[in-house]
């Protein structure tokens, strides 16, 4: 019992200084990773992706109007495009909400 209590007290004493340390938004050495992720984001949300999404929505919309595809599946494509291209705004909103709650 005495060892457990002393171990708990030692753990608490060592964990409190960690709570006061600031959290940096950019860890050391993450620059190449961030650059790679920004390139992927630019590729996935760039002009080519926007053009492909516009063509996909137009084709699915035409298929829904002619009765070749059901409306539920067509709306899934449209909502998916909104989520993909609005992901940045969605994450920013969640992050803002989490900062307010914290």
Count helical runs: 5
Task: Determine Rg (CA atoms, Å).
Answer: 24 Å
The dominant shape is elongated
N-to-C order of helices and strands:
HHHHH
Which spans of ≥5 residues are poorly predicted at pLDDT below 50?
17-21
- Biggest sheet, in brief? none
**Average pLDDT value?**
79
Gap between N and C termini, in Å?
36 Å
| Quaternary | single chain
Approximate helicity band: over 70%
Explain how this protein is built.
This protein has 102 residues and is an all-alpha fold. Helix content is 80%, strand content 0%. The protein contains five helices and no strands. Residues 17-21 have low confidence and may be disordered.
Keywords:
102 residues; mainly alpha; 5 helices
Task: Briefly characterize the structure.
80% of the residues lie in helices and 0% in strands. The protein has 102 residues and is an all-alpha fold.
Helix/strand layout:
Elements: H1 2-19, H2 31-44, H3 47-66, H4 71-85, H5 87-101
């Amino acid at each position: 019992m005495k060892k457990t209590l002393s171990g708990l007290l030692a753990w608490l004493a060592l964990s409190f200084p960690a709570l006061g340390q600031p959290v940096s938004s950019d860890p050391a050495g993450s620059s190449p990773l961030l650059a790679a992720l920004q390139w992927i984001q630019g590729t996935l949300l760039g002009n080519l992706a926007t053009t492909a999404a516009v063509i996909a929505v137009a084709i699915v919309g035409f298929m829904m109007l002619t009765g070749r595809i059901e409306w539920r599946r067509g709306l899934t494509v449209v909502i998916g495009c909104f989520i993909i291209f609005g992901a940045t705004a969605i994450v920013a909103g969640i992050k803002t909400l989490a900062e307010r709650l914290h």
